Amino acid sequence: MKAVILMAGKGERLHPITNTRPKALIPLGNIPLIEHVIMSLEGMVDEFVFVINYKQDMIRDYVTQFHPGLHVRYVVQKDVNGTATAVMSAQDIKEPFVCLNGDVFVERDCIKNAIEVFKKTGNQVISVKNMDNDGSYGSVVERHGKLDNIFEKTGLSKKSLVNIGVYVFKPNIFSAIRDTPLSVRGEYELTDSILMQKEDFAVVKYSGYWNDIGYPWSLLDVNEYMVKNQEERIEGVIEKNVTYSGNIHVGKGTIIRNGAYIIGPVRIGEHCDIGPNCFIRPFTTVGNNCHIGNATEIKNSVLFDNTNAAHLSYVGDSVIGSNCNIGAGTLIANLRHKKDPVKMEIRGKVISSGRRKLGVIIGDNTKTGINVTIYEGRKIGNDCGIGPGVIVEKNVMPWTIVQVKQECTCSSFRKDES
Fold first, then answer.
1. Burial label, 4 (beta-carbon count in 10 A; 0-12, 13-18, 19+)
2. Which run of H or E residues covers position 61?
3. Long-range contacts of 306-315 (CB under 8 A, 24+ apart)
4. Closest-CA residue to 183 (of 216, 153, 147)
5. What tens digit of pLDDT does each residue of 296-351 get?
6. pTM of the predicted model, to two decimals?
7. Domains defined for the chain, CATH in brackets
8. Residue pLDDT, tens place only, 347-396
9. Is position 311 annotated as part of the catalytic site?
10. Active site residue: 71, 249, 311, 337, which one?
């Protein structure tokens, strides 16, 4: 059986993280999302078909470097105008195939269950999860285990069977896609194609963990799930006067220096320099080649590779991209005085994160100067410079320098005034 993985989209709701990488290469628990997809299908398929477009060369390069023996084929979705068009990119497949939205986090058991039901019943499969639905997800109606209807992101009810983007298709799905009209949202919806053949679809309910990684704070949700369920492992060096508890994972070549205090679950990558005298709190993931230094506190945050927070800083409930430097004394707010859910601007609209605590999302290659203060729920783009003493009250666009202008009231400085 083949696996068709849909990963052509730009992931615009995840800006600035996806400004510099496709969604498939976002690290979750220090492992790129595409790696989770490959591992979840290992042994169940004999070929991967990656449907790609946005920053496709980065995906090709990753697979070539880390999976040179993987039987993989790439197809380019030329018009990124819907999931039906994405699946149609693989129309030369002549046998049943698994199809996944490659931008979601799903466990192996979900895919395994879908394949087993297909083999047992001979019906095509749509996987669902019973969960709260505020209108962000498509709602599925089933009758006696078979598909009855799908309501695409209409908020049918607060609790519903949500389409989680895991399917098993027969090749005749392509004929339905060819007959699929443009939807009211201006896209060719895969769910419309599925409804044309609904008599042939079994509905498989899944009760395990699933996350569509739809918003920047979703990265914190998935990261928390992953570190809670990680295998405890210490491959680096922990000096004598380090205090740690709970489940921690420390990568090769990493040193945890005296005075560091770590409360697990925490994951720290390879070749990191941690401490002395820092505080790392639960649900934090630190990437490879990072430095967390003296009097710095990191709480429930994700730091990508090659990022440093070396002195006197606080990072809480935040996602910090690769190759960033958090200057000494940088403080990130993560809680509103009213203690209501923190809001964030997504694609021009300010929406609630549903989280009581949420800090900042920072893109790759961004630096903050000393004594920078960042308000809660803000986004700072990639390749930015935030000057010393700046208070970040608003979002910062990519490739921007923000600085406090120094006003000088004297025209000169004479030696006799010293």
1. buried
2. helix 56-66
3. 315/359
4. 153
5. 999 999 999 999 999 999 999 999 999 999 999 999 999 998 889 999 999 999 99
6. 0.93
7. 2-211 (3.90.550.10), 218-402 (2.160.10.10)
8. 999 999 999 999 999 999 999 999 999 999 999 999 999 999 999 999 99
9. yes
10. 311
